[in-house]
Design goal:
binds S-adenosylmethionine; about 250 residues; three-stranded antiparallel beta sheet; alpha/beta
């Protein structure tokens, strides 16, 4: 399957991934909470460091409108809703969105969830003070889809709003896992299927700048700080992708 024909299939691909989460598994509250915690952990750590360093938010959380992109089961959404923010989570997988809604309800958290393919649809449905992406961007592998994604972010960010992103980036000694391959455009394929985009940091910076956003904070974590491939457990950190953590605002100049 080439990259173009994959373009409309994010919904199908990610719905399939979420089908692995069985009703039995959902019954096990501890397992669900542990899974959510594991997936959101590094983003929350990043957010908390950032918010201490830059005194964010300046006002009360109840005045903060937060958008969680690629929300999955909604762990990041739950964290901000727990602080009192008004939160919307979006994901391409309708299955993830219905799980996330149920989980939020069970925790008595008022969160709005929407199904949206950010590689295709860039029309905004509101202005947000904080837009968070915890590991979605590297799932969008084709350039057109990423352009759409950034248009959506720019259209949805308030004038002084903050975009926080955590994503995988390439490094020189990167080792492609067995059964994966990488092309010259940094697309990592799982068999025939485009799976992740792992760009070098400098290319990610260029992509963000040309989308009309201005990076105000950028930090490269020397090693991948979240789990992607089981096989990575045995790799030395210099063979793994790195993690980029960045904050950006709308470029007003
Ligand atoms: C690696 S998971 C991260 C989940 C969640 N943010 C977290 O940190 O736990 C990536 C999420 O992005 C979603 N996703 C992938 N492609 C997408 C797209 N084109 N539009 C919207 N969401 C997408 C997937 O369904 C998945 O839930």
């Amino acid at each position: 399957m080439d990259t173009m024909s994959f373009m409309n299939n994010y919904a199908q691909y990610y719905n399939k991934a979420y089908e692995n989460l069985t009703p039995d598994w959902f019954e096990n509250k501890q397992a669900v909470d542990a899974y959510i915690e594991l997936n959101r952990k590094t983003l929350i750590e990043f957010y908390e460091d950032y918010s201490k360093q830059f005194s964010f938010p300046q006002n009360d959380y109840s005045e903060l409108k937060v958008l969680d992109l690629g929300c999955g089961l909604g762990g990041v959404s739950q964290y901000f809703a727990g602080k009192g923010a008004k939160v919307t989570g979006v994901d391409v997988s309708s299955l993830a969105v219905s799980f996330a809604s149920e989980l939020a309800k069970s925790k008595k958290l008022d969160i709005e969830f929407k199904v949206l393919d950010l590689s295709l649809d860039n029309s905004s449905f509101g202005e947000f003070d904080l837009i968070i992406d915890s590991h979605l961007l590297h799932c969008i592998t084709e350039e057109k889809g990423r352009e759409n994604y950034f248009k959506f972010v720019k259209n949805s960010l308030s004038k002084e709003g903050l975009f926080l992103l955590e994503t995988m980036v390439f490094q020189k000694q990167f080792r492609t896992p067995v059964e994966y391959s990488m092309d010259e455009d940094w697309t990592l394929y799982k068999g025939e299927t485009p799976f992740r985009k792992v760009k070098p940091g400098i290319e990610l910076e260029d992509e963000i700048k040309s989308s009309g956003l201005e990076i105000s904070y950028l930090y490269f974590h020397a090693e991948l700080s979240f789990e992607v491939f089981d096989e990575y457990k045995d790799y030395p950190h210099q063979n793994l992708p790195q993690t980029a953590r960045l904050a950006a605002k709308i470029n007003k100049s």
